[in-house]
């Protein structure tokens, strides 16, 4: 089974329960960036998302 890349928005925001999960890291990062911008009004760098927020599950 392939690893999945998961971002739990709870690690960024105490109030948001949004979870992104994808087997494709690029896609997970893109979705996370979009969510951060649209919902939280934050521009988050790809590297920051990968290093600090994405988990391998
Ligand atoms: Zn969120």
UniProtKB/TrEMBL annotation:
Protein name listed in UniProt: DUF1059 domain-containing protein
InterPro entries per UniProt: DUF1059 (IPR009409)
Superkingdom of the source species: Archaea
Any Pfam family matching the protein: DUF1059
